[in-house]
Specification:
Elements lengths: L6 E5 L4 H12 L3 E6 L6 H7 L3 E5 L5 H15 L4 E4 L5 E2 L7 H29 L2 E6 L12 H21 L4 E8 L11 E2 L10 H9 L2 H7 L4 H12 L7 E4 L1 H20 L1 H6 L3
Parallel strand pairs: 1-2, 1-4, 2-3, 4-6, 5-8, 6-7, 7-9
Helix pairs in contact: 1-8, 3-4, 4-5
Length: 280
């Protein structure tokens, strides 16, 4: 175990990275408040770890319920050292292919819910005078891809929010880390919501994406990230003496973000003269 036992609150704990993180924390001797839509999916862990696993059913898009669960967790457990905002919603398709309900669901889960989770825990963390908030974002928070525009928008939005919070909450002893995983060997793509295709996009990159997502074997082969290794990296980063502002996980994420940032930096430098020429 890398650190003394601490108390963690993790949303979206039933599968994928959230499940791997919850399991790793419990094995290490930590106490975990795990939220899921259906707490029965954690019964096996509850049977093994008993009082070290506190559970609550939660749809993170229900803000009233979210606040109640957070307040109850702090009331039952006392100080909570680490918050991990992991729950998310996946939706791909061209902007024109998306329906209104899907747009609302994705933004509610991926952008509004993390904002409201932070707002719910912050009064408790300020009272403690300490705490660390880890937001699970994605490679998509630094890149863009045809056919996933709204998903990228939600991740860029959440990154902007948490990037801005560093200096805002630092005086209270609260830290922030944004995690940017690449593809993960999980059920994310199996549960992914894909919009109904529009024929006009079939011959372009959106059509290519639809065909790729329909090939489960190809998607599985390209899912490089090991959730257990990623969970371990998140724990080590969050409990380090100086947690990073951002944590990139997966070789595919590193390559994609490095290329995106290099391209944007080159484009920015090419505009230096015109930028300076517009000063008053």
């Amino acid at each position: 175990m890398s650190t003394a036992p601490r108390t963690w609150l993790v949303t979206g704990s039933s599968s994928g990275l959230g499940r791997a993180l919850t399991e790793a924390l419990l094995r290490d001797g930590h106490r975990v408040a795990a939220t899921v839509r259906d707490t029965t999916r954690l019964n096996d862990l509850k049977d093994t770890y008993n009082d070290r696993l506190w559970t609550a059913d939660l749809d993170v898009t229900d803000t009233t319920r979210l606040r109640h669960v957070v307040d109850t967790a702090f009331s039952d457990l006392g100080d909570i050292d680490h918050i991990v905002s992991n729950a998310a919603f996946g939706l791909y398709g061209a902007a024109e292919e998306l329906d209104d309900q899907g747009i609302d669901q994705l933004l509610a889960a991926n952008l509004v819910a993390p904002v409201q989770l932070l707002r719910s825990v912050l009064p408790h963390l300020r009272r403690q005078g300490s705490g660390h908030f880890t937001q699970i974002s994605s490679t998509s928070g630094q890149t863009g891809m045809a056919g996933a525009s709204l998903y990228h928008a939600s991740k860029w939005g959440v990154e902007g929010f948490f990037e801005s919070l560093h200096d805002e909450v630092a005086p209270f002893g609260v830290g922030i880390t944004i995690v940017e995983p690449g593809s993960i060997d999980s059920n994310f793509f199996a549960r992914l919501n894909v919009a109904e295709p529009i024929d006009a996009y079939d011959s372009g990159p959106v059509g290519d994406l639809h065909r790729y997502l329909a090939d489960a074997a190809a998607v599985k082969a390209d899912s490089l990230g090991d959730p257990a290794k990623m969970a371990r990296a998140i724990i080590e980063a969050a409990t380090s003496a100086r947690p990073p502002r951002r944590l990139v996980l997966g070789s595919d994420s590193y390559t994609a973000i490095e290329q995106a940032l290099s391209g944007r930096l080159a484009a920015l430098r090419a505009q230096e003269e015109v930028a300076r020429s517009t000063n008053r």
